[in-house]
Structures are given as C-alpha cells and as structure tokens.
Fold each of these.
Amino acid sequence: MTPPGPRALEILRRDSKVLSPYNRPFYYPFVACSAKDCIVRDVDGNQYVDFNSGLVAMNVGHCHPRIVEAVRRQVGELMHYSYTDFYYPHVVELAEKFLPKTPGRFEKKVFFGNSGAESIEAAIKLTKWHTGRHRYLAFIGAFHGRTIGAVSFTASKPLQVARFFPTMPGVTHVPYPYCYRCPFKMTHPECNFYCVDFVDDMVLHRYVPPEEVAAIVFEPIQGEGGYVVPPPGYFQKLKKLADKYGILLVDDEVQTGMARSGRSMLLKGDGCRFVAGSYGFKIGDNGLEGWGSLHHTCC
C-alpha cells in the first residue's frame, strides 16, 4: 500500500487536532506501529528498513529479546520511586558499568537524564558553578537541543531560534572546522588550524573576554550541521587554546557516543581531557531512552 494509507491518514488528522507539531517532518508522514530488529511497520502494514535506527537510538535493533525481558522483569518489581530523592541499586550498577567506558583514567561521576538537551543543561550548570564564569563559545552549524538553554548553543537552522529571542545570553558562535567548505577559503593542513587561531585572535582578543568564558561546547562530529568531521589534531589544538585561558571543554556526544562512531566515545584516546561530556544512549529498547552527563569529580 502506498503510504500514507487510510489508517495513517486518520491518525495524522487526529494528531493535528490535539498534539503540538514539535519538529516532525510532515513531508514524510510515517505512523509507526511495531518493529523487530531493523524492520519497522506502519499502521497500514507497510514494512521499512530502519536506516536511521530510531533516530540514532536503537543501537541493538528494535525489541531485542534480552532487553524486552529485562524491562518486563523490572516493571514487575518496581517502576518508580523518585530517584531524585532516594536510591536505586540498578542506577548505581548502571553507573559502575558506564563510567569505565568513558574517556580518562580518573574518578568520574555521571548524571542520568531524560534527553540530550537535559544533559547539556546540566553541563551548563556544572561549568557555571565550577568556574564562576558565564560566557560560552559554541560552533556555527551545531545542534545541542531545543530547551531554552541548549538552543542557545544550537546554530544549525534559524527555525530553531525563531521567535525565542532572547535566549540564554553570553553564547558566542565561531566557525567549525569544515575543511570541505572552509569559511576562510583555506586548505588543510597548510592552514595550520587557522580556525582555532581565529578564535584566539579575532574573538577572545577583540570582544569576548577570555577570563569570562566558562566553557567551549562542541560536537566531535557535527550532526545537523552536515556530518562534518574535523581533521586530526584539531581538538588537541583547541584544548591548548582552552588551557591557555582556563576554559573548560564540553564534549557533546549525544549522536556520536556509545559506539556509533566505532568507539565507545569518539574522542576517547585522542589526548584530550574534558570537564563534562553529554552522551546519548539507549537504556531500554522500546522507548526507554537515557542520556548521561559526565563530569570529573574534581569539579
């Protein structure tokens, strides 16, 4: 049946009357019904190969039997008792398994949240509290979420911030190392990472006091910005710039973390140490999503 079928059209009609449009692509009115492994079915019986992996969340496929069994067992024992006020053994066990897979051999702690945007908000609060500073650097083309703090760092589409001005003050966007379409019309490696020198010479020496910058927030590979991969050595030079002024680094791996790039964390082992990281991963496999905001215990 050519989608959208009659059942899908009926749900779309009902949806438009009662639900916020959010950011769903109405040019592709897919109405999911069930899924198994990499196959997703819509309400009219059409089957699709899920090449977007549930929007980069279903790392082990849909409805993996071990995950389904674990979820069923847990909801039969305990569904909720306010982890923000009390304690769960399974949360401790998850943190103990998760932290060794993150960069650096030093003591770390993790904050579990409900979305990538929430983990970015946590990183903002953490870096403000630790440094006493209130300015930030982020990158043109970035996507870090849509809550009012996170969207202040997002710079992939004007639509993301339209009608929301003013967002959180103090965020300055600088060019990302997009070698294929270099905004400076230069070539790598002859440029010697001029995009980092530009931040130092033309931003931090001209109109953004470096002693007021709490952190540089970045994606190791830009997602919505066009899947832009920085050249090797870029983050090492960025780290030197940050260290020069006592600026922290926030590594947003909501899209690249948890082995999506082939490593548990994309920047793991690249010689950079970060004060905070935002990592997206699937705790469950049937709609139970989880994100972690990682930080060093020295903070």
Amino acid sequence: MTDAKIIHVDFKNRCKVSAVSSSSLLNEDVLRASGFDDRTIANVMTLAAPVPTKTTVFDTYDHYKGSSYEDTKNLSCKDIAKLIRVQLKKFSGFKFGITTDYNHIRVRITAMPANTALYNPEWVAFNKANPHEHNTLERYSADVARTLADIEALVSEYNKIDSDKFTDYYAPKFYGNVSVDYEFTKSRQSERD
C-alpha cells in the first residue's frame, strides 16, 4: 500500500488544519499531535481498523436423493407407483388412488375411517365466523395432515432432484403430488357445514 496522506479540513473555518501520513494512522498520539479533534480521531480509527473478512460459499444447487432412489432409478413412474401402492397398505383404514403419466405420480386419499375427522375444527370455525377472510390455519385435521406428510415422505424416497436456483434449472426424476381427493371432500362436506 502506498503511503497516502489524510487531510483534515475544518469546513467551518474553511481552512486546512493538518495532514498526516497513513503509516501513522493507528497511532492516536500522532493524530492528536497533528491537530485532529477526538471525533475525527475516532472516525479515522474506525476507518483504519481491519475489517474482518467472512468467506461465504453460495451453493446454488439443491440436490436431493431419496433413500430408495438408487434401487429404482431405472424404473418408470408406473413401476414406482406400484411400489408405492404396496407401501400405502400400512395406512390402515385409508384408501388411495394413484395415477401416473410420463413424469408425474399423484397420490390421493379417497377414503378414510369414519371416526377420523377430515377437517381441522379451528379451520372450520374460522371459515364459519369469517366467510370472506383468508384462512391461514391448517385445513386438515392432525391425523390427515400427518398422513399426507407421511405419504409425501414415502413418495420422495423414490425421487431425485437436481436444481440450480440461479439458472432456474429444476430436474426431478418425477413430479409428485399428494392430496385429498376432491370427490371425497365433497362426500364429507357435512363436516364443514
């Protein structure tokens, strides 16, 4: 670094007060002897203080590989759906519909035990009290929400996702969708009324 000069100008009196070389910046006594006031010395000391550097590594890629991906990576969506259908049998009392196409697997809950509430009672109460307001509460009951989350986890076990946020690149093995069947929700409409 070259030896720069710091010049303090007293703007009130419009005159140059003093100058000091940058090699003596960190010495307050030299600055004080050169005629700098305490405020200017504090500013110079702040500006001359070493700035800690922090290295930030931006990983723009999102990588996800499900636990069963390696064993099933050469299977089609239709074959993966068959494997998922077998594993869905562990959800006793629930029935599911699974549809596939080239790169999409959709799992829908089509039936559940009659004693299992479909909707969250708080969500229903809010909708009744505020029919024109946006409801941010969880729509489904805790049992149904937990089942949906478990099914999503099950479906994602067979998936692999590579993406890059900066280039808007998104490449899953397949797109998965887990939901409650619309026709089934219509049959349980009485819970909402």
Amino acid sequence: MTAIQIVTNYYFWLTVLGLIGTWFAWKKADKNRTRAAFADTANEKKRFRRRAVTSRITMVLFILIGLQAAALFVMQVLGRDIPVNLAIFASLPDLSQVFPEATETAMPEETVIPTALPSQSPQESTSSPEPTIAVSPTPVRLAQVAVGNTNFRGVNLRAEPGLSGKILAKLPNGTVLIVIDLPTELADGYNWQRVETLEGVQGWVVEDFLLPIEP
C-alpha cells in the first residue's frame, strides 16, 4: 500500500480519530473527577461526577471505533477480504474516483481470420457426405467492467466462487475485466461473477466490486 493510499484510507483516519478522541475523553474525565473531589457543595460534586461518567462512556466509544477501524485497516494492508457485515461507514464515497490507481484501457479488437475449406472433386462430393466438424464451446463475452469500490485494497480473482477458492491474481482498482458468463453464483454470502482479464486469465470476482464501463 502506497503513501497516498494510506492517507486517503477511511479506516486509517478512523483509527487516528479513535486515538485522539480516547485521549481527549480520558483527560476530560480525569479533570471532572478532580473537580468533583474538591467541590464545595454536594450539587457541584454530583454535577462533576456525571460529567466524568459521560466522558468515560465517550472514551469507551472512541476506543471501540479505533479498534475496529485499526483491525479493518490491517486487513486491507494484508490484502484480506473484508466481509460486508464488518465494513463500517459503507455509505462514504469511494476515494478511488478521486485518486484513480489505474487508467482504463480499451479492449483490443479480435481479428477473425477465415479458414478456407479444402476443395473437393465432383466425384468426392457426390459419393461421400460432407464431414462434420466438432466445435468446442467457448465462453460468450458479454461486457466490459472495471474493478472499483474497494477503497484502494483491490479485489482477489479466484479460481472458484467463494472465499475458499484459490487466488489467481490481485486486481487493483481500475483493472478492466470482461464478463463471460451469466448469471452470477451465490457463495459465502456474496454474488460471484465469472470474468476474464485482458491477459486471458479466467476466474471469479465478487459482483459488488465490479463497475460498468460507459461506452
């Protein structure tokens, strides 16, 4: 993970926010506890004690936010898949649209070279039937998509649909892929789309991380 990816990562800044918030809440709680100890009246002691309790609760919340954000940030650095039910603040915009990692490249057009059929003499054409040629099925290439919505951590291309499938490649944001099969397959709580890279490697990717390419 590069420096610009770190400074634009949500979970990195949430971790920093958790640390700063925890420190300020702890200082506030300690200050109110000291004021309560030296208060002149019972009402003042009660008021400062309530403030100290509120500061402690705030400190616990900042600790929880910081711990979860730190765990998710470490998972991104290690290239682990983050389950959707653990990803917090999912409604924030994707910074990959502001700092694209890779430019989309156009799909090279395939050139089809016709194969000439062998010529047959009149005697052969009338005496024997024309041989049939077995054609192996090929995947139908449906559309081009690009990797996105990954917060700069990329996505894994797997040999089979599911989190247990073998990882064939690590695809960064902006990688152009070709959809070669429909419909998607459901595995481990995700919809998996069969795709092919521009280098010809076929595999499966979580559908949530695929964005359509405008023509």
